[in-house]
Structure formats: structure tokens, C-alpha cells
Amino acid sequence: MEDVEITDVDEGRPQVEKPPLKNQDLGSLSLFVGDLLSQYGWHLLVVTVLVYVLIQYLSKRRSSQSRPTSPPQTQQDAALVARRQEAMEAARRKMQAELDAKAAVFREKQKQQEEEKRRQKIEVWESMQQGKSYKGTAKLSQTTEEASSSTTVMKPKTDKKSLRSADYNPLSGEGGGSCSWRPGRRGPSSGG
């Protein structure tokens, strides 16, 4: 094995020396950037898009603030506003008139009720002066007043026939039902 000679293949060719990198920091920087993008690429993409959208929003907002806030009103706009206000005022007046009419009707009913109460008190006082029973006339006047004020008519109760006989007991197992409870089988099931 000592007879073996090792020779280089490149011995016959002239060696060309590669110039050394002038800035070796760029190589490490490219490795750093590649590593950063592989780890946080999606996060950086989302942050970049959000910054872009924010810049667009702020530029639109700034341009809208630089414009005048309200354009000068024309004669048509003023006439339209005046018509709307007049229509609203007319509707308000109409609603107020309806409310006033309802209030007048309510006041009239209140006066009638007060007059009725006053008249009943006078009748009770007169009946007491004549020696008649106070409670009998008061109850009679209350029942006539309640009957006149209520508009619903009470229906008399009808005798209803019960659906089951009086001796029916669901716990007894009797009573004509087609179903009855049976205990389940004991032991292992034989199905399946």
C-alpha cells in the first residue's frame, strides 16, 4: 500500500483564485433575512397590509377635511326645508287638536261621574233622613252602577259531564285502558 500515489485531478489545470467577498456582512445579512422571513413571513405580510390600509384611510380622511364641510345651499334646498318644516308643524297642530278633543271628552266623563256620585250621596243622605237602611240602598246603587259600566255579559255555567267515571283510579291498573304495565324480563337478553 505504500506504492499508491495520490494525485490531484486539478494538477494539470491552472488554479483560478476566487476573489474573497468584499463585504462578508452581506452574506450573514441575507441569511438573517431569509431566516426572519421563514419564521415571521405571514406576520410581516399582515403588518405591511395593515400599514398600507391605515395610510390610505388617513389620506382620505385628510383630503375630506380639507374640503369645505357643507356646500352652499341653493334656493331649492331652502324651499324644500321650509316645506318640510311647514308639513311637520301642520302634523303637530293636527295631533294637538286630536289630543285636546280627547281631553275634553275625558273631562266631560269625569264631570258626569262626579255628578252621579254627588247625586247618589244625596239619595243616601235623604234615605237616612227618612229612616231607611243606608247599606241596602248603597249596595243597590253599586250593583246598578257596576251593571251599567260593564259591557261584558257573563255566561251561566253549564253542567259538564266528566269524561271518566267517578271510580276511575289510574294506579289500580283497571279502568278500560288497552295498555298495562308489565315488568321486564330478568337475565341476559337473548336478542342479537
How many DSSP H or I helices? Answer: 3
Poorly predicted segments: none
Helix content: 55-70%
Shape: flat
Write the layout of secondary structure elements.
Elements: H1 24-66, H2 75-129, H3 134-149
Helix pairs in contact: 2-3
Describe this structure in words.
With 192 residues, the protein is mostly helical. It contains three helices and no strands. The protein has helices at residues 24-66, 75-129, 134-149. α2 packs antiparallel against α3. The relative contact order is 0.02.
Question: Can you summarize this structure?
Answer:
The chain is mainly alpha-helical and 192 residues long.
What labels describe this entry?
mainly alpha; flat
